[in-house]
Design brief:
Two copies of one chain form a homodimer. In chain A, helix 2 crosses helix 5. In chain A, strand 10 and strand 11 form a beta hairpin. Chain A has 328 residues and is an alpha+beta fold. In chain A, the strands form two sheets. The first copy, chain A, has a ten-stranded antiparallel β-sheet with strand order 3-4-7-9-8-13-14-12-11-10, sandwiched between helices. Chains A and B meet through strand 1, strand 2, helix 1, strand 8 and strand 9 of A and strand 1, strand 2, helix 1, strand 8 and strand 9 of B.
């Protein structure tokens, strides 16, 4: 089990492992610059090795008898589904058990597949799996916030996969965004994301591509070189209300974007997160707007960003958008 | 010149380069995993090459005619000292010029020196340089916040150096901390850092070492494995009010801590930031408490942290403190 500990000054929750604890030797086994080594053993995410993973929570059939997308509980979760919150003080501090869900979406049977090279129809299946899992997890009233997250390449396993997290708190990064959208709505009675979409479509210079339902653009105050957002052009607060036609369209937008990254920066490492409205209807549907934020992990200067929450981006979004448009 | 652009949703300022702009080929020249390559040419920070850098803003004499610590304006600054803020709208967004100061403290004449191996008397000279520069920069009424920052090893140059930043805004990470301390003070009429110091000294299990004037400990909600804070035991809001005796004592604490990291994790990469009170007396001296936060750059899972501002730490601070105490 892990604990959620509240940092008392900035009032931010941190997950601290209390059973699966790592000591100095665990870090020494990573080679500088401290990248984890992927195991040489059989891949637990490959077909035929299903016995190596927990039982799936969802799967989609593929060709023959094989699955095409498979969702499993994470064997090493940040949050566990069983147990009680047990909110309590510890001295002057605050602590609770890290209750939640942490599932892995195995995105394809093929170990060496990736989103840039995938058929859009396969990406659509991944989106369908995301949606179905969120619809199911929404029933659990303990969860406040969902987050979908992907690191490419995977940190501990190169087999293409993403993470679904259901959290008992709204993490700081999402919370700031929510308060910003509420404040804007109070002042204007409009969704700030909808206004940004209008602005970007009218100004054009930061737009990378537009599909029927989605806008792909470099945000004005991009924190990272080639930071890119994918957002539905029509207001929608919850990702898991997406319909079949929109999923098909989104899969085209995603595949096109990841292929552009691949061509432009020679298969760079990246992360994306899918931000969606808090779960328990605490916020009005008119104020939040779900979207995907993508970061290429080619940045530097991490000390500064870490020390201040303040970002320095040497590639203006207008330039990034030109490169990404033209490479398409 | 760089711009400060305001991210309109979470309302966070981002520095975006607008002249010294990087395109895809700049990132391709970094080898995966996208570490910058240090130049093979002569080191501009080494004695004899002073002509390669801007004119110093401060230096301390060492043995013979040599300097022992030298401070210079950064040739590639995040913030520039010349110019006007020019706060203005750009469409629906907000932008201003990135006015400020960005100086480099060359910590020793020797190219292969580092804080773990340095004489405490040399660290004391570095601290003296920090103090003198902040006292000077404080006179410029445009600056709202100072930050001292070090990355080890340096990102673009391995010669030991740190950064002094004078910023026209209070960056988000510091702002959150300040609002937290103000809120606590309002409720309790006590400094939260002072209370944490009392708690940690009484509980003991997260203390790494204590000197006459400083406490070195693993914070309760450590975000990173072996995260460590160094804090003056007596209340003090501004680092640059430190006296000679305290600097001497702090240099001992720092050298001991960095040597412990070196021994325990085989010379790991790290960053530290020195947080000090906002400059322009906007906050009462009784509420903020300066301190140093140190992070070993051995962490993983960056996608999650990035996506959420939410940290997962597999090494509880109680365990980290035991390791760091015992290796001393």
């Amino acid at each position: 089990m892990a604990q959620l500990r509240r940092e008392p000054i900035a009032r931010r929750w941190v997950v601290v492992s209390t059973d699966d604890v790592k000591g100095p030797s665990d870090y020494l086994s990573f080679k500088p610059p401290y990248q984890p080594q992927t195991s040489d053993g059989p891949c637990p995410f490959c077909p035929g090795n299903e016995g190596m993973t927990p039982k799936e929570t969802f799967s989609l059939n593929g060709a023959g008898k094989r699955w095409s997308v498979r969702v499993i509980p994470n064997k090493f979760p940040f949050f566990r589904i069983e147990g009680e919150f047990d909110r309590r003080p510890e001295g002057m501090y605050d602590v609770m058990e890290a209750i939640g869900a942490h599932e892995i979406v195995i995105e394809a049977p093929e170990h060496h597949q990736n989103l840039a090279m995938m058929e859009p129809s396969q990406i659509e299946k991944i989106l369908f799996a995301y949606r179905e899992r969120l619809i199911d997890l929404e029933k659990d009233r303990r969860f406040e916030q969902f987050l979908i997250l992907k690191n490419y390449p995977g940190v501990f396993n190169r087999h293409p996969h993403s993470h679904i997290l259901a959290m008992p708190i709204i993490p700081r990064g999402i919370d700031e965004e929510i308060w910003g959208t509420l404040d804007y709505y109070q002042r204007k009675e409009r969704c700030i994301f909808c206004d940004i979409i209008k602005e970007e479509i009218s100004v054009k210079k930061r737009v990378i591509l537009e599909t029927v339902h989605f806008l792909v653009f470099s945000p004005f105050a991009s924190r990272y070189p080639f930071e890119t957002w994918i957002i539905p052009k029509t207001h929608s607060s919850d990702f898991h209300r997406i319909n079949k036609e929109e999923m098909e369209d989104l899969s085209l937008a995603m595949q096109s974007l990841f292929l552009r990254f691949h061509k432009l920066l020679s298969d760079p490492p990246y992360s994306f997160t899918l931000h969606t409205s808090p779960v328990q209807n605490r916020f009005h549907r008119s104020e939040y707007h779900w979207h995907i934020e993508t970061r290429l992990r080619i940045g530097l200067r991490e000390g500064f960003e870490w020390g201040t929450g303040f970002f320095v981006n040497p590639t203006p979004p207008e330039n990034a958008a030109v490169y990404l448009r033209e490479v398409g």
